[in-house]
Amino acid sequence: MRRGSAQRLRLLLLILCCSSAVAAKKPTYIVHMARSRMPPGFADHRYWYDASLRSVSDSAEVLYFYDTVAHGFSARLTPAEARALACRHGVLSVEPETRYELHTTRTPEFLGLDRGGGFITSSDSDGDVVVGVLDTGVWPERKSFDDAGFGPIPASWKGECEEGKDFVPAAACNRKLVGARSFYRGYEASMGPMDESKEARSPRDNDGHGTHTSTTVAGSPVPDASLLGYAAGTARGMSSRARVAVYKVCWVGGCFSSDILAGMDKAVEDGCGVLSLSLGGRVADYYRDSIAIGAFTAMEKGVFVSCSAGNAGPVPTSLSNVAPWITTVGAGTLDRDFPAYVVLGNGENYTGATLYGGDPLPSSPLELVYAGNVTNTTNGNLCMLGTLLPEKVAGKIVLCDRGINSRVQKGYVVSEAGGAGMVLANSAGNGEELVADAHLLPATGVGEKAGNAIRSYIFSDPSPTVTIVFGGTKVGVRPSPVVAAFSSRGPNTITRAILKPDLIAPGVNILAGWTGAVAPTGLAMDARRTEFNIISGTSMSCPHVSGLAALLKGAHPEWSPAAIRSALMTTAYAAYPSGDSIIDAATGRAATPFDLGAGHVDPLRAIDPGLIYDLTVDDYLDFLCASNYTPFRIASLTKRSNFTCDATRTYAVSELNYPSFAVAFPATAADVVAGEAMTVKHRRTLTNVGRPGTYKATVRAWAGTEAGGVKVAVEPSELSFTEVGERRSYTVSFSAAGQPSGTTGFFRLEWSDGEHVVTSPLAFTWK
User: Fold this and answer.
1) 120, 158, 455, 515: least CB-packed within 10 angstroms?
2) What are the residue boundaries of the Inhibitor I9 domain, all occurrences included (predicted)?
3) How far apart are CA 104 and CA 231, in angstroms?
4) pTM metric for this prediction
5) DSSP secondary structure code for residue 124 in this structure
6) Cβ pair 96, 74 in contact under 8 A
7) How far, in Å, CA of 677 to CA of 388, rounded?
8) Could you tell me how far CA 161 lies from the centroid of its own chain?
C-alpha cells in the first residue's frame, strides 16, 4: 500500500472512531407526541414516530415506543437533533432523560435532605423525639410505620395505644408508631352518635388525611412507592427516625374544639416533643382559640407546635392559627409535575396536570363541548351532580369550570353522563396553579389562561375537537417553588405587628401514605384502593415543618420551640438562585412576606443558623400585656389566674423577639399630617448558637415589590459574639410618611458574618 493511501486509511479510521465516540455520548430523550395529529398516509403511529425521528437523524434508533400512559418514543439524540425534533409537526415536547435512583418520592430530595449527611438522614437522636399528629387517625398496617431498626421506646414516653373497633394495640402499635388515641365526645355531643358503618370509634383512619400527614412527618422509608405509577420512588418522612403518636380528633362531621384540646392535652402529657395540627377554623382572639390555648401550654413545656395556615388563599387576611407561639405554615410547590397535554383540533396545545392512571383515550380526536352548553341549569358549567344532559355529552370530552364541588367529582359527573373525558379549567382565584388529581376518567386540569383559550375555541369553531396526551411524571420543573394559590395569606388580623404566615413548605401534589378504607379520590363511587396518595393543601406543608422540627430538636435538644422556629425562618429563602423573588401562583408576580412569610424552608441551613431569636414564656406574657389583655383573658389563655400586668411598665408588641417584622402605619387622613414622617421602632435580641464572629446588618429591598417609601435604619449595625449563648440587642427604626390605606411595602434585613446569613422579612401596611 502506498504511503499516501495508508495515511488516508488511518485518517478515515480515525474519523469513524471519533464518529462512533460522539454517537456513544448522545443523551437519551423522551419524545411526547400528539397521537391524534398523525398525518394521513401512515398505517400506524409507530411508522409516524419513526419517520419524525428520521427527519432529524439518519442514524438514531427508537429505544422504546410508548402507547398506553404516554404516547411517543425515546431515542438517543444530539442536543441539536433534539431541538430540531421539537419543531416537527405533532411533537409536544422533547425532554432529556433524568437519572433516577431509589431514594425519595421527591420532597426530601427537593429540600436537600439527601445531601445533609450525618444526622440529617440517619440521626439516632431523632428516635428520642415523638411527634404527635392530631388528625383523622392512622392506618397502622402501612409500611411507612415499619419499626425495623428502631431501638426501645424512650423511657420518658407515657402514651398508650388504645383498643377500639378495628384497632388492636398488639398489632397496630410498635416502636415506630408508639401511641394512638381517639377523642370523639365533643363530636358526638354536637352531632349525635357516630355512624360506625362509616367511621371507627377508634384511632383507625377511615378518611386518609391523618395517615397522609403522619407519614409525611416521620414515615419510614418505603421503596417502590407511587400512586398509580406516578411519583415512583422511595417514600419517607421528613424525620424518618422520629417516633409517631396519633390523636384522632377529626371525624366525618368535623373537628371539634373540645376534642382538639383534649387531644393536645394528652399529647403533651404523653411526652410528645412536637405537635402537628393540619387543621384550623375561623380566626379568633387567642384566648378564645382552643388551638392557641393548647399550644401556649405546649410551648411552655418545650413542645414545638406547627399548624397549617389554611387553604383560603389567595384572599388577603385569610389565615388561621396566627398565635405567635405557633409556627404557621403556608404551601409551595415542588419541582415535580404530572403533565398532560390538551391538543385542540386547531393545532393548539396546552399543558395541564393529572394523576389519571387508566386506559388512554382513542387515538383519534373527540368532539369537545363546554359544560355550560350541555346542561339543564344555569350553573351547569360547574359539572355538578345531575346537571349534564347525556344526549349532548355521550362520547365527548367536556370542558368543566372549577368551583363548588370537588374536582374529581366533576369527572364522575361527566362519566355518568356518558362523557369520554374532561378538561377542568381553573377560575381566576386558582390562576395558573395546577393541582393533579387521580381522576376516574381521562381528564386533566388546566390553568385559567388555557381554560379561557379552550373555551374561546369551542365558541368559535363549528366542530371543535380535542385529545388528551398523558405525560407521566416530570421532575426538575422550573421555577420552583412557587407559592400555592390556595395557601392562606396575611396580614395577621389579630396582631398586625406579628407577620404571618411564618414560612412555606412543600404542599402541592405530595405523595404519602393513605388509608385502606377509601379511594385516593375519597369518593364513595371510586372502588380503587392504594397504599399511597398524592394530595395538596397546607395540611401537607404543615407536617413537613413538623418533621423538620423533629430533626432540629434531635440535633439540638437544648433549643426552645422559639429557637427552632427562628432557625427555620431566618435560613428560609425567598428568591431563586437568579435573585428573582419566589413567584405567587395566583398572580404570576413576586410573592411578598404576606404570602410566604420568611420564605421557603431550607433545612440544611437551619441546622447551623449562626444566630437565633429566642423567646421565653415571660416574653409571651409581656406580649399579652402589650396586647391589652385583662387578667381574665391572660388566665384563660395561660392558666395563670394570679398574673397581672405591671402598671408601672410600658409594654409594646414591637418588643416581642420575633424573627420577622410587621409595621402598621396610620394611613393618610386625620391620623397623620400629610407629608409628615412617622417613626416606629422595633427592638430585637440575637443569641449566638454558632462560632464566635462579627455580624453586619444589611437592609435590602424585597425583589419585585415596592418599598412603600419607608426608610429603615439599624442601630447598632454591627454585633460581635465571642461565645455560644451570648446575646446582643439592636433596634430597627422604620420611618415613613402617610400613604393611602392599603398601601404595602417590603424589605429584607440580613445579618451576616460571611458564613451565615440570618434573614428577616420586613412588611409594612398603611391602615
Assistant:
1) 158
2) 28-103
3) 9
4) 0.84
5) G
6) no
7) 61
8) 30
Q: Is 641 left (phi over 0), alpha (psi -120 to 50) or beta?
A: alpha
**What does each C-alpha distance from 185 to 165, 282, 560 come to in angstroms?**
16, 22, 33
- 3-state SS string over 313-331? CCCCCCCCCCCCCCEEEEE
> Contact 200/165 with Cβ under 8 angstroms?
yes
Q: Do residues 634 and 628 touch, judged by C-beta distance below 8 A?
A: no
pLDDT tens, residue by residue, 87-100: 999 888 887 755 42
3-state secondary structure of 704: coil
Place of cell 408576580: 589
Tens-digit pLDDT profile for residues 270-288:
999 999 999 988 888 998 8
What is the C-alpha separation between 321 and 327, in angstroms, rounded?
A: 8
Encode pLDDT of 361-413 as tens digits: 988 999 999 999 999 888 899 999 999 999 999 999 999 999 889 899 999 99
Residue for cell digits 396610620?
A: 666
Residues 657, 682: Cα–Cα separation, whole Å = 9
Q: How far is CA 244 from CA 270, 296, 377, in A?
A: 12, 21, 49
Q: Quick check: is 539 catalytic?
A: yes
Please name the residue that has the C-alpha cell 428577616. 760
- The continuous run of DSSP H or E covering 390 comes out as helix 390-393
> Residue 223: is the preceding peptide bond cis (ω within 30°)?
no
CB-based contacts of 6, cutoff 8 Å, min separation 6:
none
* Cis amide linkage into residue 479, ω under 30° from 0: yes
236-to-225, 302, 741 alpha-carbon distances in Å: 9, 26, 47
Q: Of these residues, 202, 226, 239, 539, which one is catalytic? A: 539
Among 135, 207, 437, 502, the active-site one is 135
Location of C-alpha cell 480515525: 14
135 is catalytic: yes
- Annotated active-site residue 760? The verdict is no
Q: Is-contact 235 144, C-beta < 8 A?
A: yes
Cβ atoms of 597 and 319 within 8 Å: the answer is no
Q: How far apart are CA 46 and CA 533, in angstroms?
A: 34
Mean pLDDT estimate for the chain: 89
Of the residues 32, 45, 71, 209, which is catalytic?
209
Indicate the pairing of strand 243-248 with strand 177-182.
Answer: parallel
3-state DSSP call for residue 236?
coil
